Amino acid sequence: MAFLLPLLDATLKENKTKTLILAPTRELALQIEQELRSILNYSMKIFVTSCIGGTNIRKQMFQLNRYNQFVIATPGRLQDLVDRKAINLSEYKHVVLDEVDRMLDMGFINEIKAILSMLPEKRQSLFFSATTEGKTQDLMKQFLKDPVTIEISKNTSSENVHQDIVKVLDNEVKLDKLIDILNQEVVAKALIFCGTKMAVDRLWKNLKESGFSVESMHGDKTQMHRQVALKKFKSGEAWIMIGTDVAARGIDVKDITHVINYETPQTYEDYIHRVGRAGRGGNIGWALTFIDDAVKKGYEQDRKSEPKYGRSSSQGSYSGRRSSSGGERGYSSYDKNPSTKEGSSSDRKPYSQGGYSNDKKPYNKNSSYKSNRSGSTSNSSYRRSAK
């Protein structure tokens, strides 16, 4: 969100300058608003209004009656306000489209074209996008004049994020393996991705019933629910968040240790966006992707040219905690030699072979189990204690 600083500087020089910022999701729009407000003070006399769905539109219409130098909105809600004549877009000399590709993927192309066509012809347009192909390229050609392209970096995952795959055969085993991973001490805060809203709700119910402190986010949740869930996740009251790609787009939590792709992402760009949530601020993070045999074949083929799901510096079938000696320890590793503290990589089983940490037993679905992470009691001696 570095674009805020030059826009704020331009506004301070000319107080009547108006800026419109479009974001694909409510969470990202609110995050931008919070970042902007954090660098403002009352003496600047700069007003900001966010216009997002799932909230009171009449309140937003009232706020738009005052002179707002910054309006931050989602495309659908902004179009509603335009239709109600609550905002005059011809007054905005600066426009920012954050995550253009995601907005187009979400089907907002008609709204975006309509909004851009209402802006003054002489304006500054800033488009930020992970990709510039297809619809994004067409939109740029239609609405940008002699644009300057700045490419910060290629779509690659952070070196701070260790990446691995978890092979599964069926959904029953898949849930068992996820629970076993979440019970590893190294998992402090986890963001889990599912492909559909129904899958998010189903997994949330399964983990909740198992005693985990978990929240969920997707498009069918009310804005109030999503804000409360995100607040709990940020504060640590809930240490697991389950979401779809769209809903989790605006999640900016710096202490996420693990990103778990419970369902594989649709594109390489989606994968990069997902795993980028871990390992922020120079911290070490982990990304695990669950795959079945069908996905595994495609993965292995892609890996011959470019790893679709990435790899860390560890070249084994798993990545994991670094020991003090610098060695790697897998999430589901174990020591065959009791006298060896960490053991060599040849002594460890990957997830697909039913391996597990030497101080934990494999999860038995029929055993009495409640996760101790939420503070509930447990009859399973190997489960994590409450923090």
Helix proportion of residues, in percent?
25-40%
Task: Please state the overall shape, judged from the principal axes of the Cα atoms.
Answer: globular
Rounded to an integer in angstroms, the radius of gyration calculated over CA atoms is 23 Å
Look at the helices and sheets and give the structural class.
alpha/beta
Q: Order the strands across the largest sheet as they lie in space.
A: 6-11-10-7-9-8
CATH fold-level label of the largest domain: Rossmann fold
* Low-pLDDT regions: 305-372, 374-387
List the helices and strands in order. Answer: HEHEHEHEHHEHEHEHEHEEHEHEE
**Could you tell me the number of beta strands?**
13
Please tell me the CATH architecture of the largest domain by its name: 3-Layer(aba) Sandwich
How far apart the termini lie comes to: 34 Å
Give a short summary of the structure:
By secondary structure, this protein is of the alpha/beta class. The protein has helices at 4-13, 26-38, 57-63, 75-83, 100-105, 109-118, 135-143, 171-182, 197-209, 223-235, 268-275, 293-303; strands at 19-22, 48-51, 70-73, 94-98, 124-128, 161-167, 190-193, 214-217, 240-243, 258-261, 285-291, 320-322, 328-330. It is built from twelve helices and 13 strands.
Helix-strand blueprint:
Elements: H1 4-13, E1 19-22, H2 26-38, E2 48-51, H3 57-63, E3 70-73, H4 75-83, E4 94-98, H5 100-105, H6 109-118, E5 124-128, H7 135-143, E6 161-167, H8 171-182, E7 190-193, H9 197-209, E8 214-217, H10 223-235, E9 240-243, E10 258-261, H11 268-275, E11 285-291, H12 293-303, E12 320-322, E13 328-330
Parallel strand pairs: 1-3, 1-4, 2-3, 4-5, 6-11, 7-9, 7-10, 8-9, 10-11
Antiparallel strand pairs: 12-13
